Each structure stands twice: as structure tokens, then as C-alpha cells.
Amino acid sequence: MSILVSKETRLVVQGITGTEGSFHTRLMLDYGTHVVAGVTPGKGGEWVHGVPVFDTVREAVQTTGADTSIIYVPAPFAADAIVEAADAGIGLIVCITEGIPILDMVRACQFLEDTGARLIGPNCPGVITPGQAKVGIMPGHIHMPGPVGVVSRSGTLTYEVVKALTDRGLGQSTAVGIGGDPIIGTSFVDVLRLFEDDPVTDVIVLIGEIGGTDEERAAQFIAGEVSKPVIAFVAGRTAPPGHRMGHAGAIIEGGEGTAQEKIVALEAAGIRVARHPVEVADLVAECL
Amino acid sequence: MSILVSKETRLVVQGITGTEGSFHTRLMLDYGTHVVAGVTPGKGGEWVHGVPVFDTVREAVQTTGADTSIIYVPAPFAADAIVEAADAGIGLIVCITEGIPILDMVRACQFLEDTGARLIGPNCPGVITPGQAKVGIMPGHIHMPGPVGVVSRSGTLTYEVVKALTDRGLGQSTAVGIGGDPIIGTSFVDVLRLFEDDPVTDVIVLIGEIGGTDEERAAQFIAGEVSKPVIAFVAGRTAPPGHRMGHAGAIIEGGEGTAQEKIVALEAAGIRVARHPVEVADLVAECL
Amino acid sequence: MKLHEYQSKRIFARYGLPVPQGNIATTPSEARQIAHLLGSPVAVKAQVLVGGRGKAGGILIARDAAEAEEAARQIIGMSIKGLTVRKVLVECAAEIGQEMYMGIVIDRTHRKPAMIVSAQGGVEIEELARTRPDAIFRLLIDPLRGLMDYQARNLAFDLGLHGNLIRPFTTIARGLWRVFVDNDATLAEINPLVITPEGQMIAVDGKITLDDNALFRHLELSEMRDVQEETEAQRQARQADLSYVKLDGDIGCMVNGAGLAMATMDLVDLYGGRPANFLDIGGGARANKVAAALRIILSDPDVRAILINIFGGITRCDEVARGLLTAIQETSTPVPPMVVRLVGANEEEGRQLLAAADVITATSLLEAAQKAVALAASQ
Amino acid sequence: MKLHEYQSKRIFARYGLPVPQGNIATTPSEARQIAHLLGSPVAVKAQVLVGGRGKAGGILIARDAAEAEEAARQIIGMSIKGLTVRKVLVECAAEIGQEMYMGIVIDRTHRKPAMIVSAQGGVEIEELARTRPDAIFRLLIDPLRGLMDYQARNLAFDLGLHGNLIRPFTTIARGLWRVFVDNDATLAEINPLVITPEGQMIAVDGKITLDDNALFRHLELSEMRDVQEETEAQRQARQADLSYVKLDGDIGCMVNGAGLAMATMDLVDLYGGRPANFLDIGGGARANKVAAALRIILSDPDVRAILINIFGGITRCDEVARGLLTAIQETSTPVPPMVVRLVGANEEEGRQLLAAADVITATSLLEAAQKAVALAASQ
User: Fold this and answer.
1) Chain B neighbors of C269, CB-CB under 8 A
2) CA–CA distance, A67 with A57 (Å, rounded to integer)
């Protein structure tokens, strides 16, 4: 089992002939992911690391039966790539690209609402189900299979937590980076629901940061509908208001989105909140 | 029973304080229609023929429980009025207005697709269920209750046929004018489906005209899914190609939309097609 | 409202679509000057709002300014399908590698705009749709999202384009979509969309039809109307807000309502007559509008009998009668025999008003049509 | 990118939104001339990209040109929240009947733009949201449909407007929506939206924040950036594509990844230290970017110790080490003690490179943070 990606995943890489797309295709293949197709308009017929390249996602899906897409397309064209994937019948779209204009994402999400497609990201490290499939840019070797579901708005911070878990022998069912942008396709609540229903996940780790109210909504959801233990961490207690902290979505605006508020909301929902990334692993260990 | 409108209909008139809106509100009230509200922005608090006027459809619906709307708003603002009605929860919207820009209607219809609201028209005479409710501009007195369902793209041509029916003692269950524009909210097929399911309708009269392929699709639908007898008439056998014949939608373009094609399609589906409006009544009489 | 080729191309150019350089000439010497300035072989093209210019000799290629002048001399003043050519477009003649088709129309069934493309351009798309339906690709466009890049690319690959042609194709497709939506068009067409031997794409011919109902928000476009191509009757009808279409029969028809007007024409035909026109006075017409309508019919020399069919609902029969009388009384020419069928609001009053005039009244539509046909035949 | 009030109002004016007449002055005499030309009482307003200008004395009313000059003299050069005022906006002072609020923001939860209006303007909307949430009306806007007329009218009636105020309100709402969407804004705000005693609506103050990620398609807007309001460190960070935020502590931090950078700062704080900055070098940074990042930290006189935390995935530890060494070697000032924690790709090579330099390396994040705090405390 696990969630979102698995051995069954048939992946198409949008932007496969670019530097980043090509590089990570190699790493995903090395990890054992079934990369069945790539897409770069105008490069149909070429091959990248043994993967056939198509001009359109439509053609890639028809020819290879791809069901999942990962997007390494430059920001100005990425929202178009997301909609192209959904329109071609892709069920899960993972968008790595950072810096997509907000209104492009607003429009793309409006379109996705009308289709059955799920978007992870953008501006995210992707999704990994250790030992089965890596659909993203995270270092595969720090992961190991196990019972801990991880969901995070961050990249390297997630790796830090995952490494701490693995170092303690606590493997992961799936680790999901939902992305650091203000507009993202999949929220904490969406992933929590999947982990709650996933038989191989026993504990859930939620890694939040300043900005927005996604953690608050997650807290409410957990209190009401999650039976599994959840351990949280929220980055940005020392972040000042009014400044974007690296991620486009990591900003305290109008007094909303502080780490303190999020921690209070999580703790009020009965969730233990770690003080630093390594402590997450300590608290998880106590649950198992 | 009957379809679309009945004694239960609670009608709001959008554009009630205009000349046309006020005039027809009087006629609809005289017919016995339950006109429960009117809307004209900025005229909230006034009264027209004893009907309270509101600033917004939202307020009219909340206050009076209106479930059906009729629109007499000038063409430049009519598409906005349609969407306003749908957004306020109105289930049936009848738009009388002629001359609405096509792209306005295209956008409005796209929105309506996402809601449960049904639009009749625009550029139509409306809907009447004789003896129960008149939601439109047709002369009420030529109608009488009975077993004949009438659906038409036309206005006065429908009156001509209805009068011929009534003159022969053939009453109508409901008469629906779906409108003469190229983009209309409800097609022949939609209304045929309602008549097929309506227990008080025994025969259906379909009045088409040149332009588009709605009659052809109706023929196909009737052949497959309508058990009741259907009598048809198609206006425009003598209409030349390339000219708009009064209705924005009545135009033979690119060799498509001729009356001959439609008559052939209807007859091929086993439907008797009258040669003139009065003959419609003769053919209906033979079915009963 | 149909736009001329040169007007369509000016709009195309404003949206960055590639069109041949050129200008409009109303005299042979202007054509010479334009060709001279362009300094290359030119096409001299009649600007008339009908199809089939090419076959009628309305498009000529000229190698130099002198030839362009001569070509313009031949074309200006010629008659194409009854329309006199008053203007020619003189533009650089494009070298043609491949001719494609790209157009946007309204798909009535799906209630959406549709982009239609084909790798076989230069012929009428309806013709192609009949003979080679497999050569045509059709994309419904969500009017709220608009045409997206990937959709335009999908069409390009459908057409078998590749390499350096993908980007210009998608740019042109997006541009044509903007032309369509920004200007409230009901048709925007590039035919042929030419690929030159050097791999450039050029819109060699173009056509735009605007939505008359949306012209109120495009005042600058409504000024493009070519009134020279209107007949006097069309002009009068437009000014009186009447729907009028001239036909080739001899029975003038005036009806309230478009469907009923067509049914009335069909009935005339059924009884062996031939309608001289379609004329819809619309709903709730007042006397002055009715008078204007009758004036148009009376000014048609082909008309030998007149059939007036009014089914009053909003339209009041007495107003109709008053309008008819006004037009009859003011005309100096003899009035053809007239059959008036009036039913509905105030029909008695209407018939009484007409009793004074030399007019046959009727209540039955069939009877009225039969009488009109008989009258026309007996003239 | 935040725009100044005067820049925002210029954009408003382009979209037909009513703004007071006025112009920008950089000297008192310019202010005098503008006030003279306007010929009415004027407001002289400091143009700085921070809130609270009014309380700081950055907005003055002047009855005539002489007073305007004097007001400008007081304001130009003053410091508001650390920013020096270099420009004032001199504009007609509006008579105020009622102050309202209208703004459009991105609603992250619903993934849509939201229009927020209130009949209580002139105060900060967040403040109002806390004290009078019932006075605020919020409308989610479908980004594909846009703001429709009826929605704007609904808001107007929500606010209790009526009569002649409905139409200007809806026109302004539609205009603000166009401002927002055409310019890829993340905030477009009119506060206060004033109703004058004569019933005119005027945007007396305005604010636009543009989406930095969309500036590539608005080159004319990106030129509006006020580089005078950037510190030297901010400028360097922007040019090197680094995310940098100055804080008031003494431990310089450099981390790859925004979340990890914040977590690192929090850890410093947890151990009793105070971070001097947020600095994210992003994913896959090469040596030159790392060097630029270290230069920024080294140029901060408040920094007493440096903590570098790199979790290598795409980022290679040897590249990081090389970048650090470059910046250390070229600097002429003493380098504060530095703790470098490197894990991930090529971490051994990175540590070996750093062994030569006077740098403390670590593999444990906790250990590294503790050491940095201790070092800062001991300086």
C-alpha cells in the first residue's frame, strides 16, 4: 500500500530534455521508479536515459499508459503543463517548478477542480514511497520503508526530519512535500485523509511553517477525523512579520500565519509539537 | 403535472420596473401566475402592480422564496442577470431578451453548466402551462389546457400553431419557446425528455426552423428515446443560404442548417412533418 | 457584420499575426503607387463581401507597378455576384510552400467557440469538410479559460507540423483567439495560412465576421461597416430596425416574427407563388415601423402582390393598420394588390381601418396566402 | 514587489479609477509648483514603502503653495521606520464624507482572489477584521469568470449603499479587479475609498503589491522598483538570487532551503542565541552563489558568529565548501568564527576542503547550533 505513488506508478516526465528534468529522470530511474515517458514539445522521437520522448502529454499517455506526471517545466510555462497533464487524463501531477505566477496557479487550480486530477505542489520536492517509487528531487538514500507517513511544506527540512527518523530506524510509508507556495494543489488535510486510510501508516509527521492557515485547518481535521498519532513541527518561530522567508508562501501577513498560532492550534488539538527537527524522531519513537 | 412551470411556480421578474417588464408582469399576474418579486438594482423597496421590488435576486429569493426567474433586462446586461439568477439559487431562468452578444451567452452557459439551473432562451417567448402559469410574453388567451406538448424555436409561429390546436379543441400541456438565438440554454432534446416523462402530455409538437442542427439531434433522440407521437414543422424551406432570417440563429451557413435536411432527418426518424402551421393541428388530431 | 479582407488583416496585424505588407487602393494610379512602394511582385485583390473573387477574376498577380496599375484597372469597377468592386488590396505576393487553414467559429451544439485547422488550406472549409473530413481537426475552446498553449500545440502536432513551425503556429493560434474574443467575432478565419518555402507563416487571406449584437461595445469596429455594399432597401431596413432579405420572387411579404415570416414564405411557395422578400417587423411594432416596412416593399419593382400576415400578441393590429395606411397614402406610384391577414390584439379595429383602403383582409392564413398567390399570377 | 502610493494611483488612473489630481515632488520647490498648479488645498504625503506614515507625521495638509513647500520641507528627508523619505506626493485634498475600504487579495485556503469591502475605511483592514469582523464583507472571485457586475452590486448593497452610489461603486470594483488581474497583483487596495460630501467616490490612498514571479511579463512594471529603498545587502541578495532577510541578532545563518533555514534560526533561538539573518541559498547552489551569500553575512557588522547548515540533496557539499573558501580568502576584514554543518552529496570532500581553513565542521545539526551560540556568546 502506501499513498499516491508505488511500484504501480507509470510516470511521465514533463520537461525531460531540460537539465533538471534529465538529471532527475536518471535519479528516479536509479531508484527504481517506472519512468515510462518524457514530454518536450518538438523533441518527440528522441530518447533520454532510455525513456521515449513525446511532443505532447496526450500522446505520451496514449502510447505508454502513463498515469502520473512530474513537471520540471520553467515557471512561465508550468501552469500550462499542469493543465495539459490533467486534460490528457493524468491522475496525479507532481509539480516541482518554483516561481509560478500566483494567478496562473489560481486559474490552473480552478480547472483542476473540474477534473479528477490531483496536483502535488508546485514548488515542492515531490513524493516518495521508500523502496517503491521516487517521484521528486529528494535524496532517495536517506529514506527507508516503514510505518511513518510524512507530509511537509518544505524540502530540505523534510530531508532533515526523514534522516532523523531513518537514523533511529523509523522507516517511512510515504513522504509527501506539498510545496511552499501560497497556492498549492494538495493541502495538509488532503494528505492526512490519505494517511488515515492507509493501512501501512501508523504514525503521521506533519511539518509546517509560517504563512497561511493550512496547519490550523489540519489541527481541526486531526482533532475530528484522524485516529492515528500525529507529531508536528512548525518552522519559523523566529521569523519576523511582513517578510517572505524563501518560500513564496512563507510570510506572516496581517498578523496571520505565525508559527506560534499554528503551534497553539496543533497543541490544542492534542498534537505533540517538536521543538526541532531531530526531536520529531524522538516523539515518533514514543508512539510506536 | 405539465413541465417547467405550474401553479407552484414562484416567479421573480428581473427588470420589473422597465416598460416591457412592468407591462408583462401585469399580463402574467392577470393570467394567474404567482409573481412574488421583482428586481431592479437601486429600486429596492418600490412596488410594481403589487409586487415588491428588490435590489438583487439574492435578496428576492431570500425574502420571497422565488424559484423561477424571467428576464426582461436589456441585452448588454442580460447575461449578467442570468448568472445572477443562477448564483442566487433560481432553478429555472426564462430569458426573453433579444440581441445578447453571443460570447456573453457562451460564457453564461459555461457557468450554468456548473450549477443546477436551467435556462430557457434567450430571445424566446417563454413558457406557458395553460390554466396554471404563464412565464413569458405569449398571448395567454389562445391557449387551453390539454394533452399536447409544444416546443418551438419561434414566437408568433408558435402562437399560430397553438391557435390552430386550440381552434380544433386540442389543448396544450405546456408550450415552451426555446428561443431563436444560436446559443440557447435548453435544446429540443432537453424539452423532449421532459415531455416524454410528463404524464399529462400525450402528443408532442416540435416547431423548428433553419440554422444549426438542433432538429437533427431531436430526430435522433426521438427515434431512440421518445415513445409518444411527435408532429413536426420546420420553417424556412424558401430561405436562401447565408442570410440571417430575423432570428440570430436562423441562418444556413456552410451548407448546414437547411429546412430540407431537417425535414429529411425528422421523416427518417418516423416523424410526420406538416407542410404548414395549420396542418400541424390536423396531424395532431390524427394521433389522439 | 462581415469585414473586408483588408479590414480583417488590419485587425490581425494589431494582434501580431503575420500578414503581407500592403495597402488599399481605389484607383489604378493608387495601386501603382502602392506597388511601387512595396517594390516586389504584388497581389491585387478585389475587396467585396462575397466569396469566389478568385474565380471571378478579382485577384491578379502583378510583377511590377505598371502591371499592378493595369490589374487594378481591370478589377476596379467589375461586378462580382452583383457587387461592384470599388477597392482593391495591393500587397506583397507571398511565395507559397504549403497552404493551411485556421478558423474559429461558434459551435452551436456545444455552446462554445471551436478552432478548426487543416493542413489543406486555400479551399472553402465547408467544401473540405465534405470531401476530406479526416483532414480537419476541431478543438472546442472553454470560453473562460481561453485557448491554452498546449491545446494549440496539440493542434500543431495533429497537423503534422514539427521543429521550427510549432512556435509560430501556436503564436498565431493564440493571436487568432484573441482577435476572436476581444472583438466579439463570430468568425475569424485565416485561409490560406501559408508556409513559405523559407518556413515563414503568413496569413495570406483573412475573414472576420463580427457579432452585430456586440458592436455597441466596439464603436471603432462598427465604423468599419461598408455602407457602399448595402442596397438602399437594406439601408432603410437597418435604420428602421427591420430584418429584410431580398429574394427573387414577386410576392412581397411582411410578417411579425421571424419563424412566422419564414412559414408564410413557405406557404406562398406551397401554393405555387414566389416570395419577393423576407421581412420581419419584430414584436410590438408601432405604426411608423410598419410604414417603413411597407415602403421597402413598395420600392421593390419586382413586387406584383403583397401579403401581410400579423399575429398580434404584443403587436397591436390597429397600429399595423395605421402604418400600412400611412405608407399607402404617401406613395406616388401604384400600389400592388395587397392581402392583409390580421389576428390578435385589436384586430377588429385594424380591419375597420383598412376597410376604407383598397385592401383585402383575411383572418385565415391559408386563405390569405392563396389569395396573394392568385393576385400575383393575375397581374 | 510593493508599489508606492503614487505608482499605484497612476495604475488606478489608467483603469479609470477616480484618484485625486496630483504629482510627485523630490524638493520643496517642486512641491510648491505642483500645489500652485493644482490651485487648491493639497495633501503632502511621504512616499515610503512602510505603513504608519500618518502617525509618523509623513502626511500634512497645506492650504496653499507656500504651505505645501513648507510641508514638503518637513517631510522630505525625515526617517520613517528606518527609511528616509525622498519623495512626496502632492495632490488635491479630498473632502471626506465617508471612508470605505476596498481591496483584493489572494485567499490561500480557497485558492482564489477575494474582494474585501467595508463601510469603515481609513484603518488597517486587519485591525478592523479583529475589532469589527461584522463590518467586513468578503467575496471569492472565480478567476476565470472574473468579477461580475451583479457581484459588485451585491457588495454595494451589503455595504448599505444606494441610489447614485451603486454605479460608481460597481465601476470602481470592476476597475480594481482589472488592475489586480491585468498586472498580476497579489494585493490591490483602496483605503480609504472616500465618498465626498457631494457624493463623489475617490480613491484617496492606494496600495498595489505585484507578484514578483509574474514580473517577467510586465517589464514596464518591474522598472517601477524603487532601488533607493533597498539596502546594499538586499540589492546583493536580489542580484545573486538569494533569499535574505536581516534580523536583529548576532549569529549569521546560511542554509539551503527555506524551511530548514527557519528551523535553523529557531534552533539558534532555542539554545539562547539570536539569529542575525535569514538566508536561503536555494537548491543546487554553485560555489559563486555560496560565496555571494557569505559576503553578505560578512558585511553585516552585527554578526559575531556564523552558522552554515547544508543538507545536500541537489546541493553538493564540495561546491559549498569552495564557495565559502573563496569568500573567506578574499575578505580583508576579520572573519567571525564559523561553524559549518555539511551532510549529503560529497560531504567528505567538502569537509576536507574546509579542514585547511579555520572552520569548525559538524555533522549534527544540534551540535552545530549549540557551538555557534556558544561562539557568539564568547565574542
Assistant:
1) 237-238
2) 11
Burial class (CB in 10 A: 0-12, 13-18, 19+), A65: exposed
User: Range of C148's domain?
Assistant: 98-222
Final residue belonging to a domain, choices C202, C222, C242? C222
Number of domains in chain D: 3
Write down the pLDDT at residue A141: 94
d(C-alpha B155, C-alpha B168), whole Å: 20
Please give the pLDDT value at position C81: 84
* Residue C14, in any domain of the structure: no
Mean pLDDT calculated for residue range D291-313: 94
Bridge-partner residues for B38, per DSSP? B13, B53
pLDDT under 50: residue ranges of chain C = none
Q: Do C345 and B209 touch (CB under 8 A)?
A: no
Contact across the interface for D145 and C144, Cβ inside 8 Å: yes
Q: Is C189 a catalytic residue?
A: yes
Q: ipTM score of the complex?
A: 0.92
Confirm if B125 and B96 have CB atoms less than 8 A apart.
Answer: yes
pLDDT number for residue C130? 85
- Cα–Cα distance for residue pair A193/A204, rounded to 1 Å: 11
Query: Residue D123: its pLDDT value, please?
Result: 84
Q: Which residue among A58, A81, A107 sits closest to C154, beta carbon to beta carbon?
A: A58
Q: Which pLDDT does position B252 carry in this prediction?
A: 86
Query: Residue D366: which of A100, A259, A278 has the nearest Cβ?
Result: A278
The CATH number of whichever domain residue C36 belongs to comes to: 3.30.1490.20
Please state whether beta strands A126-129 and B230-235 pair in parallel, antiparallel, or not at all (unpaired): unpaired
Our CA-based measurement puts residue D143 at a distance from the nearest CA of chain C, in whole angstroms, of 9
Residue A1 has pLDDT above 80, yes or no: no
Cell numbers 517503491 label which residue? A132
Question: Quick check: A275 pLDDT over 80?
Answer: yes
pLDDT value for B259: 96
Nearest-neighbour CA in chain B from C63: distance (Å): 35
pLDDT reported for residue B17: 97
* Strand partners for B234: B208
Report, in this order, helix, strand and coil percent for chain C, each rounded to 5.
Answer: 40, 25, 35
In this structure, what CATH number is given to the domain that contains residue C341? 3.40.50.261
Rounded Cα distance between A198 and A149, Å, is 9
Structural domains counted in chain B: 2
Whether pTM exceeds 0.80? yes
Poorest-pLDDT segment among B22-26, B120-124, C329-333: C329-333
Q: Establish, for the pair of chains C and D, how many residue pairs have beta carbons separated by less than 8 Å.
A: 3
Grid cell 402530455 is found at: B201
- Same domain for B172 and B75: no
Q: What is the pLDDT of residue A252?
A: 86
Chain A residue with CA closest to C147: the answer is A80
Whether residue A138 is predicted with pLDDT greater than 90 in this model: the reply is yes
Query: Do C61 and C127 have their domain in common?
Result: no
Return the SS3 of D181.
helix
Inter-CA distances, D360 with D150, D207, D337, Å: 65, 47, 8
Q: B217 and B165 share a domain?
A: yes
Kindly state whether residues B211 and B264 are assigned to the same domain: yes
Find the CB nearest A103 among D143, D256, D314.
D143
For the stretch D256-286, pLDDT in tens is 999 999 999 999 999 999 999 999 998 888 9
Which residue range is the domain that position B83 belongs to?
Answer: 11-120
Q: Which of C189, C244, C319, C347 is catalytic?
A: C189
Q: Give the pLDDT score at D96.
A: 92
Sheet holding A92-95, edge to edge: A47-48, A51-54, A35-39, A11-14, A68-71, A92-95, A118-120
Residue A93 bridge partners (DSSP):
A69, A119
Question: In the Cβ-directed half-sphere of C213, how many Cα atoms lie within 13 Å?
Answer: 25
Instruction: With a cut of 80, say whether residue A254 has pLDDT above it.
Output: no
The domain spanning residue B162 has which CATH number? 3.40.50.261
Q: Using CA atoms, how far apart are residues B108 and D148, in angstroms rounded to an integer?
A: 11
Shortest alpha-carbon distance between residue D125 and chain B (Å) = 26
